[in-house]
Amino acid sequence: MIDPLTLRREPAADSRLSEWRAPDGWRHRRFDWPHPDPRGRILVQGGRADIIEKFYETIAHLHDAGWSVTAFDWRGQGGSGRLAADPHVGHAASFDPWVADLGDFWRGWRDEGPGPAMLLAHSMGAHLALRALLDGGIDPAAMVLVAPMIGIRSPVGTGAGTRVARLMTRLGDPARPAWKVRSDAKSAGHRQQLLTHSVERYADEAYWYDRDPSLRLGPPSWAWVLEAFVSGARLERDSRLGGVTTPILMLVAEADGLVDPAAALRLAGKLPNVELVRFGAEAAHELLREDDAVRTRAYAAIDAFLEART
Question: Domain Serine aminopeptidase S33 spans what residues (predicted)?
Fold first, then answer.
């Protein structure tokens, strides 16, 4: 069994939660944990509905390895406010503001300390990182993409899923939730299986939400679903992928039930400087919050990749 106190290890007193304001004034919740003798700096960004606290275990691992670590909650989730009237809906009419936020934050953060600047991004965060990289908004020395959301899983396939999402945005409020959340044990069990095989790490998420309910975010809006389909398809077709020189490590869970691993693998094949690590049935979507065997392998790949580029 995993000791919950290990998962909930809050960073030391020299870490801090603060705020960063985007050029348009939007307030973002920010986290920093400087290292006294850093080998470099790394920005850690989560996915849709994620919060900084879910990555404390990963942040602690990176800090122990000598990195100064920073993270921020995406606009519209966590402690960075909401984009819909219903605070439980993860809404986005467009992903463009998120891509812009990442670029604006990066340009200010990159020069705040010594050493190479790296980026580690999970799921939707990896999608946004790729878009920002292609647009020239970020220039990391190296980038780690964990379970990248290039395509999203749909029971009817990508083409039909896009058409359904577009229809649903036209038939009603685009900011309404795309599905309802049930509170029964069966529904919770299904969600856990999609995210991680680790019961303890899944429960850790609830610990943080119980501690601060305002951080919790529910299902995406229909507008978010449509934008995820459209932006993912555009990203796969982007002719600039072949010109990316940034070293990229991509960790893909081939049994992922939330994002489409086949889309991630297709995109990886277009990148000229990519290292690919594939996980099988032992891994669900949250590779860095999986059972120890998966998480340890993922950390080993990340550590070796960053070490080679420090």
Answer: 37-292
